[in-house]
Amino acid sequence: MMNIGKLRDALEKNQILIYFTAVIVAAAVAVLLTGTTAAESAINPALAFMLFVTFLQVPLAELGQALKQVRFLITLLIANFLLIPLLVFALVGFFLEDPMLRLGVMLVLLAPCIDYVVTFAHLGRADARLLLASTPILLIVQMVMLPAYLSLMLGSDVGSYVEVGPFLHAFVWLIAVPLLLAGVTQLFAKKRDSGKYIADVLGLTPVPATALVLFIVIVAVLPQLGPAMEAVWQVLPVYVAYAVISPLIGWWVARRAKLEVSSSRSIAFSAATRNSLVVLPLALAVPGAIPVLPAIIVTQTLVELVSELVYVRVIATWGDGQGKRADI
């Protein structure tokens, strides 16, 4: 009989290869397509399923446990919701003038990852369990803070790009409803063996579901990429600079807080890894979003996946020889 746990571990360990394979195959398919209507119409259903199975992996019942790790949690929040926004505002202000590009980049870079960051943190010798327990808080806080950050940076321009109706519709049906269904499924899994089996099987799907979303988005966007290529080249330096600076910020603040080495690595991974595909439905709710916003969001995803290959080797060595605690 298939070992679900081993299969899930194999999918998670090979997810970067799976994602890049999906991207390459999607690019080949897009070249052969003459239209993108079918692909565009499939984006939201694929996103809804991906977000449901992603949220299903977020241990909502462990929210109380995360609140007990006070020093780690405060450091995590300071890194992701104070220092990282300052970095993002500086990068966006320096590199970008177009409000649409600023909006797309901020949607991505201001939202800390709640899913595969745990796997990468584990591979990078970080305290993945502590990070996993904190993911519900990261999800809640980013959804509360995103509108405030966008208003602060874009000012009056935010009303021109974010219409309340479509934005709220996307949030409710593509984020709130999948999150609610995930919570119900988790409760069912605790009460019934059949529920646990269903949850275990669904636990196999986050990586394939994410690959499917990448595939569909690229098939939909690539044929229209001409007008978006200039935007991609404009945001690329922002993403590269972010990939280099953000883990250093996370590590620095964690060491200042005197966290253990493994916990400090977790902060570094969290600061560096973003929630790109989770905020994609919010980006698609922006009028005229396609192809520019999906293109620059997928670009960030690809830069990040390459960066994670570096992080799991480099961050894993940070703090070696310093003992359990160290200060900069």
UniProtKB/TrEMBL annotation:
Localization: Cell membrane
Main localization category: membrane
Record-linked InterPro entries: Arsenical-R_Acr3, BilAc:Na_symport/Acr3, Na+/solute_symporter_sf
Record's keyword terms, sorted: Cell membrane, Membrane, Transmembrane, Transmembrane helix, Transport
Entry keyword annotation includes Transport: yes
GO molecular function, one term: antiporter activity
Family affiliation: Belongs to the arsenical resistance-3 (ACR3) (TC 2.A.59) family.
Name of the protein described by the UniProt record: Arsenic resistance protein
Record organism: Oxalicibacterium faecigallinarum
